[in-house]
Amino acid sequence: MRIKSALAAAAIIALSAACGSSGGSGGTGEPAKSGSEPVKLNFLSLAWQKESVAANKELVDEWNKANPNIQVTLVQGSWDNVNDQLVTQFAGGTAPDVIHNDSPALSTFASQGYLLDLKDKVPAELKSDIPQAAWDTTTFDDGKGNQGVYGVPFLQESQVIYANKKALDAAKVRIPTPDNPWTWDEFADISKKLTKGGNYGVAWAMKSPVNKTLNLALNFGGTFFQTADGKTTVKVGPEEKQVLQRIYDQINKDKSADPKALGMGTADPLPGFFAGKYAMLPAGVYLRQQVAEQAPKGFDWVTLPPLKGTSSNQGAVSQTLSVAQDSKHPDEALKFISFFLNGTNQVKLAKGDWLLPTSQKAATDPAMTTKENGWDVATATAKDLVVAPFLKVKGYDEWKTKVATPALQQYFAGKISLDDAAKQLVDEGNKVLENN
Known about the structure:
Distance between the termini: 23 Å
Helix content: 40-55%
Number of domains: 2
Number of helices: 19
Largest sheet: 6 strands, mixed
């Protein structure tokens, strides 16, 4: 999931002030003493885009008008510092009742006993509307050997390909569909065909290469981690090497991918894309918003479905809503979550964030299946999302930062061989895992 900057200092002040309130107004406040007093819940939201913030506010206002006995206060947080802030609040007993986060963060908080296990508490209608693959992203060990569900998953991201439609038409290439996507071999051939006159077929923005590469590796069954007898180790075998080698070949062998794009962030290649320097950009579905808003007049672009290896599987990370273990009003918190994440409301949230709803009802809404801005293709990719095995690995974040990021950057830049990269990922990675 995207981690974007907000006004971090202001968010800390607002979050601390709102969540630290007492007298029944916060997650750890006392229950209302009078039957006439409403239950008060704090809802920490990390929505940051204008449309998403507006959708959150609209839904909270709608809930409060319809539920005078359960009033929700919207607390604006920031992706930049939310987990550090929550550690402090959990320890101090001032955490909000309802917590917006992403699924990888739930593992640690669940094992420390800070989140409520929702496994047997989610209403049947909500539970059945969200597929099991999405629930798997929020299912973790509680630290005592028991599996629990520690959040309701509601928004997900997939990797797609953005393409210059005029360039595709000129090259007379087949336009893929969700039911008949390009294979990696087709993508390589088409990228070479689109590389001419100093322009490139594709730009791989790899400033942060790990999650993107590991998610795509699932196209060939590459998991990068294996667990035996309770011990997890790093694995870089033939399955894991497939996508690594294919991206490397486009950059260093076929010369169909611009090597200068390797140091770019996700949105950095957009000016080159609009100018015709790059015909295609592999990126997350959320980038459609910037493409739609920034594309010059007359620029014809399309969203293409994920590539296929032995499958089109990709790793899924979910945005989630959780309930604090110490909340004085867990039942009311779940009622609010069930309203906030129903099918109709997930459409509003997904449109605001340009992401995929987990709700199967939401996925069939006309707003989610329109061809405009590639919503039909984006929504169809949800079927390819499976739980990302590496996000269940304790120590993954440290491995990603200290080992995988530099190793992959060096490899894609042609500075080390695939075998050398694999050795670093395994040898140095296992040292990291042993210390976690």
